[in-house]
Amino acid sequence: MCHVIVTCRSMLWTLLSIVVAFAELIAFMSADWLIGKAKPSSSEDVDNRTGGSQEPYHPTLGIYGRCTRISHMQLSRRDTLCGPYAENFSEIASGFWQATAIFLAMGIMILCAVAFVSVFTMCVQSIMKKSIFNVCGLLQGIAGLFLILGLILYPAGWGCQKAVSYCGPYASAYKLGDCSLGWAFYTAIGGTVLTFICAVFSAQAEIATSSDKVQEEIEEGKNLICLL
């Protein structure tokens, strides 16, 4: 018989697992890993409303994507175009970034799988006599290691030609040059930290769903068990 068991710790672990997976996925897909040096407005970049020049803009560069400003026939119109600069994996700017993409993708796939499974832990608490929380916690720990490897390798690619074109000639491995780090990089770091927190907290979720109070509720014949 299926018993629906909901506790504060198990629910918090489930929510954190989902948030971490989405955070890492969004960061990976974003082009805001590096914020390039300011591009000065040209003499043609005139704002018709104020008569003055538009503010300089900062192009951004991701692992496989970028955002830059493009010009139109209308002098007052400047649009920011975002999209992948690499049509396939081999065109990613650096070998280090290719390795980063692989490790991050592996970690994110594991996190997404755990996030999907975590939704069903309210009904299923064990698989083949093994706690599903402990199994998911182990997978989250492995995913965290993949994410760490990807984030360590990423700065090694700052010396590639693509990064130098955005960050200036002083950019090199682990040196930003004229660039700064964007929100996507910090989100990936924060998500990695939360991944290990989730891995540790999964043990607390397992303890909460197998406590004496839960067993007492099961023995009383209750199918829906909610505990604080």
TrEMBL record:
It comes from Chunga burmeisteri. GO terms for cellular component: membrane. This is LHPL2 protein. Its main location: membrane. The gene is Lhfpl2. It is found in: Membrane. The chain crosses the membrane at residues 12-35, 96-120, 132-154, 183-203. It is a multi-pass membrane protein. One of its GO terms (biological process) is single fertilization. Keywords: Fertilization, Membrane, Transmembrane, Transmembrane helix. Belongs to the LHFP family. It holds the Pfam family L_HMGIC_fpl. InterPro entries: LHFPL. It comes from the Eukaryota.
